[in-house]
Amino acid sequence: MYERFADTGPSNDAIIPEIAEFIQQRDSFYLGTVNANDWPYIQFRDGLRGFLKVLDEKTLGFADFHGNCQYISI
């Protein structure tokens, strides 16, 4: 499926309307970051469907719920 998308999908990293619609229907996602020493850190986030928002063609937003106790990604 990814190969087909790579061949026919957008040629840049902008969030196009079709991708935005898909993203905004999710009820979970994984957030990957790296620290200054290039160590990866992956966090699972979930919430009610629609908690992940497309703010513009390059930016996603989501609530960092109280009780997470992990501030590495902020």
The average pLDDT is 82
Quaternary class: single chain
Backbone shape? globular
Question: N-to-C terminal Cα separation, in Å?
Answer: 32 Å
Helix content: 10-25%
The topology string of helices and strands comes to: HHEEEE
Widest sheet: strand ordering: 1-2
Query: What number of structural domains do the residues give?
Result: 1
Number of strands: 4
**Low-pLDDT ranges:** none
Structural class comes to alpha+beta
Number of helices: 2
- Cα radius of gyration in angstroms: 14 Å
- Beta-strand percentage range: 25-35%
Note the main sheet: 2 strands, antiparallel
Q: What does this molecule look like?
A:
The protein is α+β, with helices and mostly antiparallel strands and 74 residues long. It has one domain. 20% of the residues lie in helices and 28% in strands. It has a two-stranded antiparallel sheet. A two-stranded antiparallel sheet has the order 3-4. The protein is globular, with a radius of gyration of 14 Å. The model has no long low-confidence stretch (mean pLDDT 82).
